């Protein structure tokens, strides 16, 4: 399910890590916005879910600092701040033209609310789901998270 286009005044938005060592700019609207319940996202962030924005690689520019990369599986690379540990991106060889950005690393994480929840098969039993979102037991074919 594609996400709705944000207001035209949102041409770019900035974000970064907790300590401020890494800053980035996202230009234009994301292709997708999801909440992921998968076990690897959970372990990589130490949170029950992760909200992700999917963008084309050309939409993301790092303005300050360089994130550290970790290969969490043969096809997946996650990047984070080496100073404060903030999770920032998810990249997969299954989607080489796009990159996922942690929604809450945006300076204004309310700009692009999620439209669906993925990997509900991995959901922790005490974690609530949002009944207003579309739900997928796995990745819904878009391989997010």
Structure description:
There is one protein chain. The chain is mainly beta. It has a single domain (about 10-135), classed as Metal Binding Protein, Guanine Nucleotide Exchange Factor, Chain A. It has one helix spanning about 40-45, and strands spanning about 10-15, 25, 30-35, 50-55, 60-65, 70-75, 75-80, 85-90, 100, 115-120, 135. Strands 6-7-8-9-4-3-10-11 form an eight-stranded mixed β-sheet, with helices on one face. Strands 1-2-5 form a three-stranded antiparallel β-sheet, with no helix packed on it. Residues about 1-5 have low confidence and may be disordered.
Largest sheet: 8 strands, mixed
Using the coordinates shown, work out and report the CATH topology.
Metal Binding Protein, Guanine Nucleotide Exchange Factor, Chain A
What is the CATH top level name? Mainly Beta
Mean pLDDT: 89
**Helix/strand-derived class?**
mainly beta
Tally the helices: 1
Q: Which segments are poorly predicted (pLDDT under 50) over 5 or more consecutive residues?
A: 1-5
- Count of discrete domains: 1
How would you write the strand order of the largest sheet?
A: 6-7-8-9-4-3-10-11
Spell out the key features of this protein.
145 residues, mainly beta, Metal Binding Protein, Guanine Nucleotide Exchange Factor, Chain A, 3-stranded antiparallel sheet, globular
């Amino acid at each position: 399910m594609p996400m709705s286009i944000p207001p035209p005044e949102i041409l770019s938005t900035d974000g970064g890590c907790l300590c401020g060592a890494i800053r980035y700019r996202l230009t234009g609207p994301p292709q997708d916005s999801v909440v992921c319940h998968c076990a690897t996202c959970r372990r990589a962030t130490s949170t029950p879910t992760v909200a992700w924005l999917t963008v084309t690689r050309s939409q993301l520019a790092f303005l300050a600092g360089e994130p550290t990369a970790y290969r969490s599986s043969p096809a997946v690379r996650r990047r984070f701040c080496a100073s404060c540990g903030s999770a920032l991106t998810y990249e997969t060889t299954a989607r080489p033209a796009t990159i996922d950005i942690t929604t809450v690393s945006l300076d204004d994480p309310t700009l692009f609310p999620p439209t669906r929840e993925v990997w509900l098969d991995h959901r922790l039993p005490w974690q609530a789901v949002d009944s207003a979102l579309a739900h997928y037991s796995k990745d819904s074919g878009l391989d997010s998270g």
